[in-house]
């Protein structure tokens, strides 16, 4: 399995010993300013056997006794943890879920940790049903799949691609981005959607529909009550479904339909992850450019939507503000501002760290 190979390989190349002293020991710091050009991203962990698209679902675990970053191997259904101690860096497999990974984008797709409880989204073996469940217990370091999965919702059978599966959290609820090619869309006809789930609910619960009309809402994050979304694929133009649309980014909590969100002015990026920065900006990872880019949040624009609760215009547009570091399929940020991404390096996938 990929996790076992990484444990055996550890840090690679000439950076090996230096990174234990520089990156690993400095994972906790005093803040992060994305414009500080004196800091350079460094290799944190090499993933030589992973292909682009395999490493997703990065989570910063500030809640553990020893800070750690976790990530998903989409194809084999494992969740890995890289714990950073005072003098050692070790990687372990902390969960293993049986998945159906045939096709372009199936497998173990997303995870979120809420009050110490782990939730994940994956496609089931054989049926390819996209489900969300709570993962507990199990002996993850054996060949026996983790059988302790309590399903809290099902999106029905998922096609090969554009199925979503990224998870987030807002006010104790589980947010899930569901793509266009799932049973949920076939039943409702609303396309992809951002939904909210009760973490204590059962598989037949009715999700709260927050925003619809997406192709594959893979990059989203919650900042306070704001839910920002960047669709991974442009999909058809809402005004003319015979032509492709332009990528759009906006506030799902204010705009009930993706078609009302602002079209981006950049070339297509295929966004794969989104994180809030300590200075109030957003950072978005792009699959087509392998970059984590910063964006200023613009408020007060005439085009911004009006919040019916306050009758005031709300910020809902972004303006590019520079490139932070490499990023292909995942990004996470620690409380102190340390950023870790899943990026494409030389010779392949790797975890990259940018210290405060």
TrEMBL record:
SUPFAM superfamilies: YWTD domain (SSF63825). InterPro entries: 6-blade_b-propeller_TolB-like. Gene3D superfamilies: TolB, C-terminal domain. This is Glucose/Sorbosone dehydrogenase domain-containing protein. It comes from Ilumatobacter coccineus (strain NBRC 103263 / KCTC 29153 / YM16-304).
């Amino acid at each position: 399995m990929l996790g076992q190979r990484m444990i055996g390989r550890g840090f690679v190349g000439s950076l090996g010993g230096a990174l234990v002293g520089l990156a690993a020991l400095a994972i906790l710091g005093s803040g992060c300013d994305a414009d500080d050009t004196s800091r350079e991203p460094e290799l944190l962990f090499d993933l030589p056997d992973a292909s682009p698209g395999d490493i997703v679902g990065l989570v910063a675990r500030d809640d553990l006794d020893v800070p750690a970053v976790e990530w998903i191997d989409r194809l084999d259904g494992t969740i890995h943890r890289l714990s950073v101690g005072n003098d050692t860096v070790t990687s372990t497999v902390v969960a293993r879920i049986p998945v159906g990974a045939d096709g372009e984008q199936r497998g173990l797709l997303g995870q979120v940790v809420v009050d110490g409880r782990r939730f994940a989204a994956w496609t089931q073996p054989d049926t390819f049903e996209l489900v969300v469940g709570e993962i507990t217990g199990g002996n993850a370091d054996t060949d026996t799949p983790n059988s302790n999965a309590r399903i809290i919702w099902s999106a029905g059978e998922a096609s090969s691609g554009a199925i979503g599966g990224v998870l987030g959290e807002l006010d104790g609820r589980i947010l899930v981005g569901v793509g266009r090619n799932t049973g949920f869309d076939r039943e409702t006809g609303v396309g992809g959607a951002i939904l909210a789930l009760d973490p204590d609910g059962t598989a037949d619960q009715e999700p709260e529909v927050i925003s619809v009309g997406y192709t594959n809402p893979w990059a989203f994050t919650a900042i306070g009550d704001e839910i920002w979304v960047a669709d991974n694929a442009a999909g058809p133009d809402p005004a003319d479904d015979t032509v492709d649309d332009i990528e759009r980014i906006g506030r799902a909590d204010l705009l009930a339909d993706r078609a009302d969100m602002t079209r981006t002015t950049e070339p297509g990026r295929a966004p794969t992850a989104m994180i809030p920065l300590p200075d109030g900006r957003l950072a978005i990872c792009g699959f087509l450019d392998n970059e984590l880019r910063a964006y200023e949040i613009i408020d007060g624009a005439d085009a911004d939507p009006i919040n019916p609760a306050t009758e005031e215009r709300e910020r809902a547009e972004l303006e590019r503000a520079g490139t932070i570091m490499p990023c292909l399929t995942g990004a996470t940020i620690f409380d102190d501002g340390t950023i870790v991404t899943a990026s494409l390096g030389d010779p392949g996938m790797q975890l990259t760290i940018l210290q405060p």
